[in-house]
Amino acid sequence: MSITPPNEVANIARGKWQRILCSIAGTFAIWTLAACQQPTPGPSIGVGNPYPVSNYVCDGTRLAVRLMGESASVSVDGAAAIDLPAIGKSGTTFSNGRQTMLIEQGRTSWAMGRATPVACTGG
Question: Is the dihedral of CA 33, 35, 37, 40 positive or negative?
Fold first, then answer.
């Protein structure tokens, strides 16, 4: 039978505690790093399409609009899109004479014929 000196028993116990604490610290570090990882961002609106669609509702009329610089492609209530050329120098009024879309200070309005433009929501 061998007798282990008290200092050696203390060293063995201290070693076990150090391994346990290192294991806990390592686990905590892994959890912390995992929590800090950023998720992979999804594709941006309009990726692959330089003219993304913006959806509006104007007094019950649904518009799907693509602004293309010199014109706007507008689908009214799901119908085939029509092209409205930009009129004026500001490039914020699009009209073919029958349908008119106005964009002023970030607000969109829609008018049919000579009717007063109605405010749109969405975008």
Answer: positive
